[in-house]
Design goal:
Layout lengths: L9 E6 L2 E6 L8 E4 L4 E3 L3 H4 L6 E3 L4 E4 L11 E2 L5 E6 L4 E6 L8 E4 L3 H8 L7 H41 L12 H26 L1
Parallel strand pairs: 7-10
Antiparallel strand pairs: 1-2, 2-10, 3-9, 4-6, 5-6, 8-9
C-alpha cells in the first residue's frame, strides 16, 4: 500500500469491496483529487497489447494507462453507479485526473463510474456493490418480504373463513355436500304424529257405524 502525504485530502481504508479511497478533508465540487498514474501502453506494441489486468485505463484506440503500479493511489477508487467524482480524460496529454462532481465530506468514500464496458466485464457478473445498488437490493428484498407477508395473511384469512363456514354447516344441520338434512329426533316426532292421526281417524270411523 503506497504512503500518502498527510496534506492529501484522502486516505486508503477498508471498503465494502475491499480497499477504497476516503476523504480526510472536505473536497469541494470541481476539485481535482488525484491523478491516475501508470506507464503508457501502446496497442501497436505486441508486448503491450498482451498485458491484461483490471487497472487498465484506455485513453483512446491506441494508448492505455497501466494503473496496476503501486504508486497509483487512484486505483483504490471504487466504482459507483451514482458517484461523487468522475474521470477527467485528456487523450492528447495522455493524462487522467479524478475530479469531484459533488461536495465530498470527510469520511465519505470517493468513487466514480468505471463505464459500461468495465461494468459488463467485471462487475455485472458478480453484482455491483456500490451504495446505490445495495440500496436497490435492500428495497427489493423488503418488497419481497412484504409480498410474502401479505400472501401469508391472505392464506390465513381464507383458512379461517373456510373453517367458519364448515362450523356453520354443522350448527345448521347441513351435510358437507350442501344438501339439507333433518335430525333423527325430528323424523321420529313426525312419524309419531302421523301414527296418532291415523289411529284417531279410524276411531272416529267406528263410532259413526255404531
Amino acid at each position: 500500500m503506497p504512503d500518502i502525504s498527510s496534506n492529501k485530502p484522502y486516505r486508503i481504508g477498508r471498503s465494502r469491496t475491499g480497499l477504497g479511497l476516503f476523504a480526510t478533508k472536505p473536497i469541494k465540487k470541481g476539485t481535482k483529487i488525484v491523478r491516475y498514474l501508470g506507464p503508457l501502453l501502446d496497442s501497436r506494441n505486441k508486448k503491450h497489447d498482451d498485458i491484461e489486468n483490471k487497472y487498465l485505463f484506455e485513453l483512446n484506440g491506441r494508448w492505455t494507462i497501466d494503473g496496476s503500479v503501486r504508486r497509483n493511489v487512484a486505483r483504490y477508487i471504487n466504482h459507483a453507479c451514482r458517484p461523487n467524482a468522475e474521470s477527467d480524460v485528456s487523450a492528447r496529454k495522455r493524462k487522467v485526473v479524478i475530479r469531484a462532481i459533488k461536495n465530498i465530506e470527510p469520511g465519505e468514500e470517493i468513487n466514480y463510474d468505471y463505464g459500461t464496458d468495465y461494468f459488463k466485464a467485471y462487475l455485472k457478473p458478480i453484482g455491483c456493490k456500490c451504495d446505490s445498488c445495495e440500496r436497490k437490493r435492500k428495497k427489493l428484498r423488503a418488497e419481497a418480504r412484504e409480498r410474502k407477508k401479505r400472501a401469508k395473511a391472505r392464506a390465513s384469512r381464507r383458512a379461517a373463513k373456510a373453517k367458519a363456514t364448515l362450523n356453520g354447516h354443522a350448527v345448521n344441520g347441513k351435510l358437507l355436500n350442501g344438501h339439507g338434512a333433518k335430525s333423527k329426533s325430528t323424523k321420529m316426532a313426525a312419524a309419531k304424529s302421523m301414527i296418532f292421526a291415523t289411529a284417531k281417524s279410524r276411531n272416529k270411523g267406528r263410532g259413526a257405524s255404531a
